[in-house]
Design a protein that fits this description.
The protein is mainly alpha-helical. The protein has one domain.
C-alpha cells in the first residue's frame, strides 16, 4: 500500500505541476491581456492551455483514486507538494528568484506533510489521527 501512496502522490504532484506550469507558459505567450475575442483566441491557440487541462483532469482522477484509500489529513497536505515543485521549476524555467523565505516556506510545507504522515502512522488501529473512532454512526 505504501508504494501506491508514493506513486499516487508523485503522479498527483506531476499533474498539478503540469497544470500550473502550462498556465504560466500560456499566459506569457498570450500577452498583452485584453478583454477581447482576439485575446481569447490567442489563449486557446496556445498548446500550453491544453497541457493545463490535461494536468487538471489527471490530477482530479489521481486525487479521487487516492482518496479511496489514503487518510484525508496527510492526503490533503501531500496534495500541496506541487507548491514546492512549481517553485523549483519556476526558478529554472521562468528565472524567478529563489529567496530565503521561499525556501523556508517549502521546507515548512514538506515538514508539515511529514508530521501529518507520522501522526497518522502512530495512531491506533481503527482510530484516525483526529482521535475519533472510525466506523458507522
Amino acid at each position: 500500500m505504501r508504494r501506491f501512496y508514493v506513486a499516487g502522490f508523485l503522479l498527483l504532484m506531476a499533474f498539478d505541476t503540469l497544470a500550473q506550469v502550462s498556465f504560466k507558459f500560456a499566459g506569457t505567450h498570450a500577452l498583452p491581456v485584453s478583454a477581447s475575442l482576439a485575446w481569447l483566441l490567442r489563449v486557446f491557440g496556445q498548446p500550453w492551455v491544453y497541457g493545463a487541462v490535461i494536468g487538471y483532469l489527471g490530477a482530479f482522477f489521481t486525487w479521487m483514486s487516492l482518496l479511496k484509500h489514503a487518510p484525508i489529513g496527510p492526503a490533503f497536505a501531500a496534495s500541496h507538494l506541487e507548491v514546492v515543485s512549481v517553485m523549483l521549476l519556476s526558478v529554472w524555467l521562468f528565472h524567478e528568484p529563489l529567496s530565503l523565505s521561499r525556501v523556508l516556506g517549502a521546507v515548512a510545507i514538506v515538514a508539515g506533510i511529514v508530521c501529518l504522515g507520522l501522526a497518522e502512522s502512530d495512531s491506533a488501529p481503527g482510530v484516525p489521527a483526529t482521535g475519533r473512532i472510525a466506523g458507522p454512526r
